[in-house]
Amino acid sequence: MPNVGVLVPLVAIFGGLIWLLVRAIRGREVERRVIFMFIFVAVATPILFPITFQEHATPVVKNLFDRIENLPSGSTILMSFDFDPAMAPEVQPMANALSRHCLAREHKIVFMCLWATGQSLLNTTLEYVIRPDFPHLVDGVDFVNVGYKAGNEGVLNVIVSDFKKMFPTDVNGVPLDGVEIFDKVGSCKDFDLILTVGGGRPGPKEWVLFVGDPADVPIGAGVAAVVAPQLYPYYPRQVIGILGGIKGAAEYESELVKTHPRFENMEKPGLRMMGPQTLAHVVILAFIVIGNIAFFRGRRGKKTE
Amino acid sequence: MRQLVPLTITFCVGTLLIVSVFIPPLGDLERTFTLWFDIIAVFAFFLGGGNLLRVHINKLRRRKTDWGFSIVTLAGFSTMLAAGLFKIGNPGDIATAVDAPGSMFYTIFDSVVVPLGSTMYSLLAFFVASASYRAFRAKNREATLLLVAAFIILLGRTPFGLMLTEWVPDSFSLLQIPNLAIWIMNSPNLAGQRAIMIGIGLGVISMSLRLILGIERSYLGGDNA
Predict the structure, then answer these.
(1) Domain map of chain B by residue range?
(2) What average pLDDT does range A147-151 have in this prediction?
(3) Mind listing the pLDDT tens digit for each residue in B113-154?
């Protein structure tokens, strides 16, 4: 039996849109508060009564997934959390899915941040994703968190040739000289892959300019949807894959579950949030159509006068 | 003298950093300068904090418009500063990370800063919807192009895009909306972005040269701007 909680708001939304369409045909514009109300219902309904859709990884996402999947176990990956709480709902699901994937493939991860706010968000991933999902993994052996350093591009400019010069210890003050992962890592050149999750500045673009190109290390990026178009000039040679917005996260999660069924029951915020995003997009598209109808009707009315 | 010293420093550092890219033995010098820059960047935090205090205390003293918000700002600033500096509630010893899970800093960040930040960002959905309604109108040829591209990209970012055009035969798969959205991103968008990036690159080079040669002096402030 269809979920009444979903059906009623959906009927209200589409009924309301048809009513607005009829008004638009008569040349009437829509008030801003009406648009806000429609968006509120469109976003709230799938949050309260989850609607999920099937996602298929597009080549730009699949490339990154395949690179991580095909790296030999034990490869060393650097992952940078370069975002703030505002961006977190969009990009943290990517960071979580990427971390899960890397650790499931038994790669070693070095976590760091170029944004001060990234460090606490990185702790959230460590606390709520990595430790519960991989309780057997040891901090310092399978992954290490070196935390945040101020200096933006300056940090990258140093770690590209000497990682420990900028990060002599991990986030808890343990010297990196004693950390097993760093036995074979001296600089960014020694990483098999660099993953940057963020979207602002410094972000993926700076990683490409200051580390990816000079050190010839492949870079994978997870970014907010508004930033993704700016990264396409670097794809696929300098940035091997881009996860753009919540759709990118959802595609990655679906690919992860398909390849690693053990994650079937994991929290999938990307896929979960595709419901609100899809419905909101449909409502926005409907308003674009309604707006144009109202515009042309209004123009015809003026010409007739 | 007030002009000569900063101009000379800018010229020397700028020239050295450019030359160090082409002469490998000077690479170490470049990294040293970068470390100096990072140390200076840390002082910017003190400067930023001091400035924030000055502005908001002034606002409070003079009872300027919305001075109530300054109380919230100052209270938030001091609470986070105290929680971080004194590592209140930190589970480990003084050496553990300032924001270790369980600490007061992490708890406030996770339960106040994160939801507030997300709320602010999510408000965008309302404004994007309202702006799309008003801005995406086929007023002329360029606006129509923008409208069509936006329509395809928006639809391509939803599962409905594929559902609507799944019937299109494989030989014409480019006409499926998700593929069309990818094409827009990969071709027209890519061309535009590259052109912008090359333009910005050339602009940065010319501005850097102007700074190094002392032609551009607005960074000195005062009457030199």
Answers:
(1) 4-93+216-224
(2) 88
(3) 999 998 998 898 899 999 999 989 999 999 999 999 999 998
What are B178-189's pLDDT values in tens digits?
A: 889 989 988 999
Range of the domain at A195: 59-267
Same domain, A144 and A184: yes
Task: Tell whether A45 and A71 lie within a shared domain.
Answer: no
What is the Cβ-side half-sphere exposure of residue A293, based on CA atoms within 13 angstroms? 18
Q: In angstroms, rounded to a whole number, what is the distance separating the alpha carbons of residues B109 and A224? A: 21
Cβ of B38 under 8 Å from any chain A Cβ? yes
Same domain, A41 and A155: no
Half-sphere exposure at residue B208, Cβ-oriented, CA atoms within 13 angstroms:
12
- Tell me if A89 and B122 make a contact (CB, 8 A cut-off): yes
In B121-150, the residues whose Cβ lies within 8 Å of chain A are 121-122, 125-126, 128-130, 132-134, 136-139, 147, 150
Token couple for A89: 């709902």
In a 10 Å sphere around its CB, with 0-12 CB exposed, 13-18 middle and 19+ buried, how is residue B220 labelled? middle
The count of domains in chain A is: 2
In sequence order, which residues have a C-beta less than 8 Å from that of residue A211 and are 6 or more positions away? A156, A159, A160, A188, A194, A217, A219
Q: Is there a single domain that holds both residue A190 and residue A129?
A: yes
On whether both A290 and A204 belong to a single domain, the answer is no
**How high is the pLDDT of residue A51?**
86
Beta strands in A31-159 (DSSP E): 76-82, 108-113, 143-148
Same domain, A145 and A41: no
Q: What is the pLDDT of residues B206-224, one digit of tens each?
A: 999 999 999 988 888 766 5
